[in-house]
Amino acid sequence: MSDAGEVEAHSEAEAAALIAQGAVLVRNAHQMRLRLPHDTSDDPEIHSFSPDANPPAAWIDALPAFLAAYPPDHPDHLPGGAGLIESYLVPYTAGAKLGALICSASGFAVRHGYPYAGILVVDRPGEGAWVCDIWRDPDPSYAGAGTRLLRWSASRLDDFTSVGLAVTVGNDRARRTYERVGFTIESTAWRLTMP
């Protein structure tokens, strides 16, 4: 899915031709998918969104981990600081981007009152269950949280046969985490803006 003014190429040659015409690359990503059902996974640190899509902790409390997960040198860095709550995070939870939030499969991992990691899963039209974002504070004491969140979330998607996500090409650490859980690459796309 692309925004207005954006096009999607499905081969490197197609992307190169568009770039030669003046298009600007926005993101090159692999689309990955995990077949369900997946093993049941309970985790006392992970708390789901309430059925009305309210987060299990205040977004302002979760923002430090989110920002730490995407520093300026990260391939998916988003500038905006605290403004990302209203411009990026809330639109996903409100269903305004990609589809309705699947509350039971979306949540925060919380330790000592600190929401150090999170996952947002939506019901994406034409795609089904889709991880639109997953993050964790990079402090080593939170290592493994991404794998735990993915397993926890997948075990709560009873009404779906699979769950998908996109990972930016070059974000090898995230891709390896997804593969460890069982996700496989189905396709690669280049999202570009046209002049």
Walk me through the structure:
This protein has helices spanning 12-20, 59-69, 84-93, 145-154, 172-181, and strands at 6-9, 24-35, 46-48, 100-101, 107-111, 114-124, 128-136, 162-168, 184-193. The chain is α+β, with helices and mostly antiparallel strands. The protein has one domain: Aminopeptidase, CATH 3.40.630. Strands 1, 2, 3, 4, 5, 6, 7, 8 and 9 form a nine-stranded mixed sheet that branches. Helix 4 crosses helix 5. The mean pLDDT is 92.
Helix fraction by DSSP (H/I, runs of at least 4): 25-40%
Strand fraction band? 25-35%
| Count of helix runs | 5
CATH fold-type name? Aminopeptidase
Encode the helix/strand succession as letters.
EHEEHHEEEEHEHE
- End-to-end Cα distance, whole Å, is 19 Å
Name the CATH superfamily assignment: Gcn5-related N-acetyltransferase (GNAT)
Give the domain tally: 1
Envelope shape: globular
Q: Mind describing the biggest β-sheet? A: 9 strands, mixed
The overall average pLDDT, rounded, is: 92
The tally of beta strands, per DSSP, is 9
Please tell me how large the radius of gyration is: 17 Å
Catalogue the unreliable spans. none
Structural classification:
alpha+beta
CATH architectural grouping? 3-Layer(aba) Sandwich
CATH class category: Alpha Beta
